[in-house]
């Protein structure tokens, strides 16, 4: 399903027939969810392009009923967490991470980066550890434990996609 940004919010009429809204950070994962799962049959799946656009933030905050959960799947790294926290802050809505936990991080394929980059991500994870909501604490602790290595969601498709519909079905609005 495609939505033309501000058009939905300007019209003022929108009947969302979905169990919830599922935000997906990158295009490859969005396409995998669309082509390899049944999730789009019951959830409004939105490719965020990796940032909290004004139109999408407005849509989440003003058009999505409070009775519907909002979930997000991003990269398992400080920027991925930051994107979801940015959406939550700007929209005023609780957003529940999916497939972003310590166990999946530990099993995931880590990016190969130079020591200065690893130090940057490690320091960012340490900063986030002091402020992130409980649902991100385990992931941040695992990133610190592994020295700041990042794990992108594309490498997790085989572990996540078969279970995604089940994990989303368990979500309730916060």
Can you walk through the features of this model?
- This protein has 174 residues and is of the alpha/beta class.
- The chain contains ten helices and four strands.
- The protein has helices at 6-11, 27-36, 39-42, 54-62, 78-91, 102-107, 115-129, 134-145, 157-160, 164-169; strands at residues 20-24, 43-47, 70-73, 96-97.
- A four-stranded parallel β-sheet has the order 2-1-3-4.
- Helix 4 crosses helix 5 (78-91) and helix 7 runs antiparallel to helix 8 (134-145).
- It is globular.
- Residues 1-8 have low confidence and may be disordered.
Write the layout of secondary structure elements.
Blueprint: H1 6-11, E1 20-24, H2 27-36, H3 39-42, E2 43-47, H4 54-62, E3 70-73, H5 78-91, E4 96-97, H6 102-107, H7 115-129, H8 134-145, H9 157-160, H10 164-169
Parallel strand pairs: 1-2, 1-3, 3-4
Could you name the key traits of this structure?
disordered N terminus; globular; four-stranded parallel beta sheet; 174 residues
